[in-house]
Design a protein that fits this description.
The chain has 8 helices and 8 strands; from the N terminus they run βαβαβαβαβαααββαβ. It is an alpha/beta fold and 205 residues long. Strand 6 and strand 7 form a beta hairpin.
């Protein structure tokens, strides 16, 4: 799976790239990673190449509005765009999801866990989604439902990973792995959408 990582902080970008390169996708193959610190260069690269997933910081450009405008461009060019932010908040998450983000993750998890565990789990979920729905993008009905209800989901499921099927939350957990294990048993023929809901009580913009 081909991944484009974007972060204007060189050290953060290096760590993101290293974490992804150290992992394998669910098929056992290595991820192909392109890491860029310039969002303008990233947008040009997306016009030239096809990436399965884009991972991007939320803070880009001169101000918050420009960052959201850039995010909209990224989501318009990539079916799956994962936002990785150091400043989680309910307004920030709502704005990101409405801009088309597929997942929204904290750079520093509130539970003190490994900052890249959720990212790698989200990439694995993205791999499965792309494998099962190769032509699907933001138009996925479950993603639309999440976007429309993100404020309530952040209030009720902050700090958890949720599974959404047929327009409702069917399960949740603090661990991607534990949730996926249950979903495989409960829904062998269905594919619930899994998405992390950050705990915004620890940071605001």
């Amino acid at each position: 799976m081909k991944v484009l990582a974007i972060d204007d902080q060189p050290e953060a970008l290096k760590q993101i790239e290293k974490a992804i390169q150290s992992a394998k996708d669910p098929s056992g193959a290595a991820y192909e990673v392109v890491a860029l610190a310039d969002h303008i260069e990233a947008l040009k690269r997306l016009d030239e190449e096809i990436f399965d997933v884009v991972i991007t910081d939320m803070v880009m450009g001169a101000d918050e509005d420009e960052g959201l405008a850039i995010l909209r461009q990224l989501t318009g060019k990539s079916p799956i765009t994962i936002v990785l932010t150091a400043y989680p908040s309910i307004p920030n998450c709502v704005a990101a999801m409405r801009a088309g983000a597929w997942d929204y993750l904290e750079k520093v998890p509130a539970n003190g866990g490994d900052p890249y565990d959720n990212l790698l789990a989200s990439l694995a979920a993205a791999y499965e989604f792309r494998r099962e729905h190769p032509d699907a993008g933001k138009s996925d009905p479950e993603a639309k439902w999440v976007h429309a209800h993100i404020a309530e989901l952040m209030r009720d499921y902050g700090g958890k990973v949720i599974a959404v099927l047929d327009g409702k939350v069917v399960d949740s957990d603090t661990s991607y792995g534990a949730l996926q294990d249950r979903l495989c048993i409960r829904y062998p023929l269905a594919s619930p959408l899994t998405i992390s809901i950050p705990d915004t009580t620890v940071g605001t913009i």
